[in-house]
TrEMBL record:
GO terms for cellular component: plasma membrane; synapse. It comes from the Eukaryota. This is Amino acid permease/ SLC12A domain-containing protein. One of its GO terms (molecular function) is potassium:chloride symporter activity. Pfam families: AA_permease (PF00324). It comes from Monopterus albus. It is a multi-pass membrane protein. Belongs to the SLC12A transporter family. K/Cl co-transporter subfamily. Keywords: Cell membrane, Chloride, Glycoprotein, Ion transport, Membrane, Phosphoprotein, Potassium, Potassium transport, Symport, Transmembrane, Transmembrane helix, Transport. The chain crosses the membrane at residues 138-161, 173-192, 212-233, 266-285, 292-315, 431-451, 471-497, 517-535. InterPro entries: AA-permease/SLC12A_dom, KCL_cotranspt, SLC12A_fam. Residues 30-82 are annotated as: Disordered.
Length: 559
């Protein structure tokens, strides 16, 4: 006779009968069921313990196989205690560190989480689409460091940094770079706030309130939008000035109309470029995403070529002459030789430069007084790192619009006549320059520090990755900018640094001539850099506005 217990009667021995109305459960069966439940609970506890161990190993800062810099695998552990050792393992069952790094570089993305979800939702085919959930898997290196690096190093470095150094001087240029790069201190706030998708907008709106968050978010949206326009204009300037100058639609017939012609060309080509980028962002973001690594590689190769060219100037400076009349810099678009006259077959004839300042090609023609009283000389635009020009480029050369670019070391006879100088082929300031203006021109180059916080929803550990990756990126780019300021001032002549568009060297890009092995490395690299940065701005700004609209902060943005 078995011991049985009924649910409806007091516990005790009973006989098993067919007519028993109580539902009885065998005590032994119930005990076995409880034992199995306890075993399952212990197994779940062991699994949670292993998960916590993997998280500790991934956050200890050691570059292991599953560190955030290399591999994001969570299904393998690194505990070699003898329990997981095998005599045989498939050859490619696990990726080594080098191959994992290459795999991450090949799959590098410049999209935010919202863009990835949108892209994945578009690819989800079927009669009924399911909600797409993209799990954050990006580490510090791929998710924060490289995007910040790509956004900070761009159009200002390639097109305007030499002009800033020539105008502000080395000392004030270092102050400008230091002021703008000091905004890295604001990024330290991320280390105390668990940031989710939405980046800096999420952080501010959840900590200071929706009103502050909406105000800052709208400013950030407008800043990202205007940054996109800056990159597009930089793309068009590189295209029309350094790649295909003959593609210009509007051509100035007079010197005073050159600025308006360039502005009109930028309007037409910039509108076309913006339309093409908008179409690409709307229908083909995932294809642009595949080129993100190409754009980043172009930036890195261009910077390396600059340093290689600077080192080369120590032994062999490039032949890059600048024609000077007295102490004034000349535009050499319309003449070939820096001479007033030359001897051909024992006959003295005038040159094209003579025709720019005189009423005719005859030797007895009426010429400009300053042209008659001063000689023309050739000055090496890039004398090299050991030339000593760094002492001359230490101080600022601010001035009003239309001021002549001069070399104060050279002799000059006769004064300026603004009524006549405006029609002469001199290099002049196109705008009035002062310190705060240069700060405003340079500052957009450091706004790329927000690229890491914008990807907070893609990061596996945003609270840790954002401050580390951003500070490392700021430190790297600050070193690059500071070193470039010093090296440009030590290698390049001051009058060439102040030449904003390269008019004194036939429109060539100064950094391109300085670089090694070819100027086209900088030209092509800067072109793709501006294109990539413009696409990123057009991709990120709408997502930010969408996040603001979802929070219902701005009523007319609600859909």
């Amino acid at each position: 006779m078995l011991n049985l217990r009924c649910e409806n009667f007091p516990a005790g021995p009973h006989k098993v009968g067919k007519t028993s109305r109580c539902v009885c459960v065998c005590v032994r069966e119930r005990e076995r069921e409880r034992e199995r439940e306890r075993e399952r609970e212990r197994e779940r506890e062991r699994e949670r313990e292993r998960e916590r161990e993997r998280e500790r190993e991934s956050s200890d800062g050691v570059p292991k196989e599953n560190s955030p810099f290399i591999n994001n695998s969570d299904d393998k552990s690194n505990s070699y205690d003898g329990t997981n050792m095998a005599l045989f393992e498939e050859e490619m069952d696990s990726n080594p560190m080098v191959s994992s790094l290459f795999n991450k570089l090949a799959n590098y993305t410049n999209l935010t989480q919202g863009a990835q979800e949108h892209e994945a939702a578009d690819d989800d085919e079927g009669p009924k689409k399911k909600a797409v959930k993209v799990h954050p898997q990006m580490g510090t290196f791929m998710g924060v460091y490289l995007p910040c690096l790509q956004n900070i190093l761009g159009v200002i470095l390639f097109l305007r940094l030499t002009w800033i150094v020539g105008t502000a001087g080395i000392l004030e240029s270092l102050i400008i770079v230091g002021l703008c790069c000091s905004c890295v201190m604001s990024e330290a706030y991320h280390s105390f706030f668990p940031c989710k998708a939405g980046g800096s907008y999420y952080m501010i709106s959840r900590s200071l309130g929706p009103e502050f968050g909406g105000a800052v978010g709208l400013c950030f949206y407008l800043g990202t939008t205007f940054a996109g326009s800056m990159y597009i204009l930089g793309t068009i300037e590189i295209l029309l000035t350094y790649i295909t100058p003959k593609a210009a639609i509007f051509i100035a017939e007079r010197k005073e109309d050159e600025a308006n012609a360039l502005l009109n060309n930028m309007r037409v080509y910039g509108t076309c470029c913006l339309a093409m980028m908008a179409v690409v962002v709307y229908v083909g973001v995932k294809y642009v995403n595949k080129l993100a690594l190409v754009f980043l590689a172009c930036v890195i190769l261009s910077i390396l070529s600059i340093y290689a060219g600077v080192i080369k100037t120590i032994f062999e400076p490039p032949d890059f002459p600048v024609c000077m009349l007295g102490n004034r810099t000349l535009q050499n678009h319309k003449f070939d030789t820096c001479l007033k006259t030359e001897v051909i077959d024992n006959v003295t004839v005038t040159t094209k430069l003579w025709k720019q300042f005189c009423s005719g090609p005859e030797l007895n023609a009426t010429c400009n007084d300053y042209f008659v009283n001063n000689n023309v000389t050739l000055v090496q635009g890039i004398p090299g790192l050991t030339s000593g020009v760094i002492s001359e480029n230490m101080w600022s050369q601010y001035g009003p619009s239309g001021m002549l670019v001069k070399d104060r070391k050279l002799l000059s006879l006769g004064g300026s006549d603004p009524a006549q100088d405006i029609y002469m082929p001199y290099v002049v300031n196109d705008i009035t320059t002062f310190f705060t203006l240069l700060v405003g021109i340079y500052f957009p180059s450091v706004t790329g520090i927000m690229a890491g916080s914008n990807r907070s929803g893609d990061l596996r550990d945003a609270q840790r990755s954002i401050p580390i990756g951003t500070i490392l990126a700021i430190a790297t780019t600050s070193i690059i900018y500071i070193s470039c300021v010093v090296l440009f001032g030590a290698c390049i002549e001051g009058v060439l640094l102040q030449d904003k568009f390269g008019d004194s060297v036939k429109g060539n890009l100064v950094i391109g001539t300085l670089s090694w092995p070819s100027p086209w490395v900088i030209v092509i690299g800067s072109f793709f850099s501006c294109c990539g940065a413009g696409l990123q701005s057009l991709t990120g700004a709408p997502r930010l506005l969408q996040a603001i609209a979802r929070d219902g902060i701005v009523p007319f943005l609600q859909v």
